[in-house]
């Protein structure tokens, strides 16, 4: 009996020692001062969405230490970069591009065609009337050509068309002004003209709610149609605006499985994990929202969700060519105002003091 006990204990000690050795071996290749980009250097680039303002604050140091890819959160959207027909505003986008070049970081362009944050002038003539399809397509071509050529050689990938698929079950395309005037043709033309402006850039279709099987099927159908026509689309961007309660491991695995059938590159383009259960629409603030916060229970749920996501990301690193977080730290997130305006969220890996949260360690200790 004693012999059996000693043998069992010996086996346990050996097993634990082996696991610790394997963990230390992985960590030994990564210095103590390493950032996310260093832990994932053999998997995929780790990116982050930034404003030009952030590059002039104490956040700049964190950006350089932790990330090796940038996305302009708003500076390259049409309303910001092309506010008037004959006027472009390059200042903020140029500063982000210069920061990326200076620090040897990749740069993703976001986004060329979207139904939001688009300047009103593009849809109207001098009399305020809606323009024709021909006029709108020409304006779109001019915009895409000018912007893509300016950042040729600096932006390696573009989100060409953003969120063109409807969330409604009985509707395929989003009923945007682009679609109402041009029909589906605006999508393929956008990719065509982006490719002509920079043949070396990788061109992505980008969308959210991709874990929903109904919407996912429509996104895949759209991409299959574009590919069958020879449209130069190279990848699909899964935004990844998720929460502590979704996706489940099964949902995320199925999402990857379905998109892999396309044979395109995949990227997680706008990643965050809200500490509140997922909601898909804006709503009014409720009394219980005032008591909301980053509780220990929510923290643990977020840790587990981040760990699960990155486990699956690493599993698919042969086709997953980038993971980009949407914002830098819990100091600021777009989720502070969605779905409830003014309700603080904590969806990222760094706290308001720019320190790694427990969730950070859950994704680098593998």
Automatic annotation (TrEMBL):
<feature type="signal peptide">
    <location>
        <begin position="1"/>
        <end position="22"/>
    </location>
</feature>
<dbReference type="InterPro" id="IPR001000">
    <property type="entry name" value="GH10_dom"/>
</dbReference>
<dbReference type="Pfam" id="PF00331">
    <property type="entry name" value="Glyco_hydro_10"/>
</dbReference>
<keyword id="KW-0624">Polysaccharide degradation</keyword>
<dbReference type="GO" id="GO:0031176">
    <property type="term" value="F:endo-1,4-beta-xylanase activity"/>
</dbReference>
<keyword id="KW-0858">Xylan degradation</keyword>
<dbReference type="InterPro" id="IPR044846">
    <property type="entry name" value="GH10"/>
</dbReference>
<feature type="domain" description="GH10">
    <location>
        <begin position="30"/>
        <end position="366"/>
    </location>
</feature>
<keyword id="KW-0378">Hydrolase</keyword>
<keyword id="KW-0732">Signal</keyword>
<dbReference type="InterPro" id="IPR017853">
    <property type="entry name" value="GH"/>
</dbReference>
<protein>
    <recommendedName>
        <fullName>Beta-xylanase</fullName>
        <ecNumber>3.2.1.8</ecNumber>
    </recommendedName>
</protein>
<dbReference type="GO" id="GO:0045493">
    <property type="term" value="P:xylan catabolic process"/>
</dbReference>
<keyword id="KW-0119">Carbohydrate metabolism</keyword>
<comment type="similarity">
    <text>Belongs to the glycosyl hydrolase 10 (cellulase F) family.</text>
</comment>
<keyword id="KW-0326">Glycosidase</keyword>
């Amino acid at each position: 009996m004693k012999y059996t006990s000693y043998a069992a204990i010996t086996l346990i000690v050996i097993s634990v020692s082996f696991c610790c050795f394997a963990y230390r071996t992985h960590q030994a290749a990564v210095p103590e001062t390493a950032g996310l980009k260093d832990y994932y250097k053999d998997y995929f680039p780790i990116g982050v969405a930034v404003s030009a303002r952030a590059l002039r604050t104490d956040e700049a140091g964190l950006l350089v230490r932790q990330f090796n890819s940038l996305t302009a959160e708003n500076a390259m959207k049409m309303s910001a970069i092309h506010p008037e027909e004959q006027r472009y505003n390059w200042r903020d986008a140029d500063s982000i591009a210069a920061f990326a070049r200076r620090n040897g970081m990749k740069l993703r362009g976001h986004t060329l065609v979207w139904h939001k944050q688009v300047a009103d002038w593009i849809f109207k003539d001098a009399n305020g009337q809606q323009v024709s399809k021909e006029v709108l397509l020409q304006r779109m071509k001019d915009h895409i050509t000018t912007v893509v050529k300016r950042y040729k050689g600096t932006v390696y990938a573009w989100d060409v068309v953003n969120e063109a698929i409807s969330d409604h079950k009985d509707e395929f395309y989003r009923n945007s002004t682009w679609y109402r005037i041009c029909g589906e043709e605006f999508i393929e033309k956008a990719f065509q003209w982006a490719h002509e402006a920079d043949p070396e850039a990788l061109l992505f279709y980008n969308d959210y709610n991709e874990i929903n099987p109904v919407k996912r099927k429509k996104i895949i159908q759209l991409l299959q149609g574009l590919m069958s026509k020879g449209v130069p689309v190279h990848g699909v961007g899964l935004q990844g605006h998720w929460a502590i309660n979704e996706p489940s491991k099964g949902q995320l695995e199925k999402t990857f499985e379905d998109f892999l059938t396309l044979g395109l590159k995949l990227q997680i383009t706008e990643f965050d994990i809200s500490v509140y259960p997922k909601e898909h629409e804006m709503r009014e603030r409720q009394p219980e929202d005032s008591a909301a916060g980053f509780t220990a229970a929510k923290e643990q749920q977020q840790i587990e969700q981040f760990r699960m996501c990155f486990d699956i990301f690493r599993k698919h690193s042969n086709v997953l060519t980038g993971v980009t977080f949407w914002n830098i730290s819990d100091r600021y997130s777009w989720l502070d105002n969605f779905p409830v305006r003014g309700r603080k969220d904590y969806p990222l890996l760094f706290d308001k003091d720019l320190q790694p949260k427990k969730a950070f360690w859950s994704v680098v200790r593998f």
